[in-house]
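Q: What structure does this chain adopt?
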Amino acid sequence: MRFDANGQIEPGLAERWIVIDEGTSYIFRLREARWRDGSRVEAEQVVAQLRRQLAGGSRNALAPFLTAIDEIVTMTPQVIEVRLRRPRPDLLKLFAQPELTLWRNGAGGTGPLRIVQEGKRSLLLRPAFDPNRADPEDQRTTRPEQDVRLIGERAARAIVRFAARDSDFVAGGTFADWPLVALASVAPANVRIDPAAGLFGFAILHRDGFLADAQNRAAISGAIDRIAVTNAVMQGWEPAERILPETLDSTVPPALPGWSLLTPDQRREQARTRVAAYGDPVRLRIALPSGPGATVLYAQVAASLMAAGITPQRVGMADDADLRLVDQIAPYDSARWYLANACAVCGDEARDALIAARDAPTLTERARLIAAADAALAVDTAFIPIARPLRWSLVALRLRQWRPNTRAWHPLNRLRDDTR
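A:
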């Protein structure tokens, strides 16, 4: 599977599929496809790759969310079956993720674009020949304007390149680099913001000292002025006080922390009181990425903490820290994904509920346990939500197929008509 310009799944290598046995069996028929080296894609190769990705000890970031898969088998040279221990309605969206890309060493992948030239920091891509298209003869003659030059570089260089009209598209912008856009002469019509869904906030990494008490952790979360933080980076950036953006596959609306019922002044006073009662000085190491946006964010968070009597210290993302920024796009619409990624270090009640939700035999029981985990995390305060993730792109007006979406996912073959 793969995502289209709207962030919705569409056929990739799978030509079609059916779901049977009450959602515990997915059968995929593979289209006629070839690897980059020209060899034919066989079902056995696909099955072998997927098994490796999901094997015990795999470093694949999605492996913990695919434990419902019991086995993957070859049915015919063009048909595979994925058998599940329990229903997973979001399986197709997981298979569309880059982490599950099908790729053979020396043979490349099966996507819509092929690498025809490799540089130190760039790739030249060309639409791949697709025998399933109605005009195969037209595909045999390529035109230079069909090629896509993909360059990986620092945000500052990418923005300058776009402003100089030496590129048509800048993708992957985050809050850390957003202030740079305002410094460049980029027309507002070229600046696009995605309604990205995911986690943006601080994971609490240690539970000792001041952070050993859940009420102290909650006081820190409540003391942060989220509106000041988000508006300092970008006016209109939506703040968040809860982990889940909406109900999703839980049985109840997202749990709100207790401090959300207090006024801003009451939150600050509560934090000052708890810091004073602790007795010893409170210092917090905050891990953030580099970039001007991260500096602006740190300044606002630090101001809130200092007002509560806490001494903050900024450290790098790889350094030992008490709070570490999490900035992730949700790969699919599951409340369990949000809660599991927010639970870097969390209490037994929340952890047990998350494990039970993963192993629930029915979707109804899974939804109930997700709600229990959400409520437990709200009390435990293992994560400090700040906002929705900020994702931006710079888009030339001629790329009319660009679409904003919650995945902030923009396939290069879905930007203009001639690379489809």
